[in-house]
Write a structure and sequence with these properties.
The protein has helices at 11-21, 61-77, 106-117, 146-157, 177-188, 235-246, 263-270, 300-308; strands spanning 2-6, 28-32, 38-42, 50-54, 82-87, 121-125, 140-143, 167-171, 195-202, 210-216, 223-231, 251-259, 276-280, 294-297. By secondary structure, the chain is α/β, with parallel strands linked by helices. The protein folds into two domains: 2-143, Rossmann fold, CATH 3.40.50; 146-298, Rossmann fold, CATH 3.40.50. The strands form three sheets. It has a seven-stranded mixed sheet with strand order 10-9-8-11-12-13-14, with helices on both faces. A five-stranded parallel sheet has the order 1-4-5-6-7, with helices on both faces. It has a two-stranded antiparallel ribbon with strand order 2-3. The protein is globular. The mean pLDDT is 94. It comes from Candidatus Roizmanbacteria bacterium RIFCSPLOWO2_02_FULL_36_11. It catalyses: D-ribose 5-phosphate + ATP = 5-phospho-alpha-D-ribose 1-diphosphate + AMP + H(+). Keywords: ATP-binding, Kinase, Magnesium, Metal-binding, Nucleotide biosynthesis, Nucleotide-binding, Transferase. InterPro entries: Pribosyltran_N, PRTase-like, PRTase_dom, Rib-P_diPkinase.
């Protein structure tokens, strides 16, 4: 039997998954004490069951990670047959290399924790760098919300078969070219297109500081679609959109899988050159942070289909 548990990281998404599967979230108690310690207690029988824990590790990243670890330990102590982690947003994924001498490689550390605590399999959505998959020594699946976003943008534009000559698929930096190409393949239905690339300079000594230097490609008179995996400060996408506008783009749309937003970021997005911002619910977004240009899609259906195969 498969049982679904939810951490506190995205209860709304877990509820959507359970509703699609016509089941309930299994009972568990999660408590945060005054000293910030967390306790997880499983409140139903799970012996010989396959147990799925849905928990993104976005802000507060460390609390959400500890909940995830404790769920796994508690379920194994109750003799669950398997414990599977579905992590819609995999926190620390951007810290996958040493950007400066002396830094830890945080993504690797988190993976080692997940393995040693006893997860039997991990699912994530659109990992920052696919090379990180190779670090896992347990079964791992990198799901993608890019087809979902591509279909929604075609619906928004009211077109079924986009013509390459009217669109520009844009990567906001050199590292995202493959992601943009994957999106474009879903959007056009073939791979006979080019990806335009923005040259970005990042200052590793200043948090969230980037600058768009140049655009390699032709966006003039086209609808430019900027594709990225995550937005936090918004500088990369806002600067990229401004450069596309300067180069003559007819309209600028954004497709981003994960949105980790603040009031400051949403205000900047609303006044930017971006006309529509498409994202997903891998990270919960307070109603106060939802803004006029946002179109949010749910990945619950994708998760539900994976759970059906267990």
């Amino acid at each position: 039997m498969v049982k679904i548990f939810s951490g506190r990281g995205n209860q709304q998404l877990s509820d959507k998954v359970a509703k699609i599967l016509k089941t309930n979230i299994s009972k568990a108690e999660v408590v945060t004490f005054k000293n910030s310690e967390i306790r997880v207690r499983i409140e139903e029988q799970v012996k010989n069951d396959i147990c799925v824990v849905i928990q993104p590790t976005a802000n507060p990243s460390n609390d959400n990670l500890m909940e995830l670890f404790f769920f796994c330990d508690a379920l194994h102590r109750q003799e669950a047959k398997q414990v599977i982690g579905i992590i819609p947003y995999f926190g620390y994924a951007r810290q996958d290399i040493q950007h400066r001498s002396g830094e830890c490689i945080s993504a690797n550390v988190i993976i080692r924790f997940l393995e040693s605590i006893g997860f039997n399999k991990i699912y994530v959505f659109d990992l920052h760098d696919e090379a990180t998959e190779g670090v896992f020594s347990i079964p791992f699946k990198n799901l993608s919300a890019l087809p979902l976003l591509a279909d929604k943008i075609k619906e928004y534009l009211k077109i079924e078969n986009p013509d390459v000559k009217f669109f520009s698929i844009v990567s906001p930096d050199q590292g995202g070219i493959e992601r943009a190409r994957q999106f474009g393949t879903f959007f056009f239905g073939h791979d006979f297109f080019s990806v335009d690339v923005i040259e970005k300079k990042r200052d590793p000594n200043i948090l969230h500081h980037t600058k768009a230097l140049n655009l390699y490609g032709d966006v003039k008179g086209k609808i430019a679609i900027l594709v990225d995996d995550i937005i936090t400060s918004g500088r990369t996408l806002i600067n990229g959109a401004a450069l596309c506008s300067e180069k003559g783009a007819k309209e600028i749309l954004v497709a981003v899988v994960h949105h980790e937003l603040s009031h400051e970021t949403t205000e900047k997005l609303n006044t930017s050159a971006i006309s529509r911002f498409f994202s997903t619910d891998t990270i919960p977004l307070d109603d106060a942070l939802k803004f006029e240009k946002l179109e949010e899609l749910s990945v619950a259906g994708i998760i539900a289909e994976e759970i059906k195969t267990l």
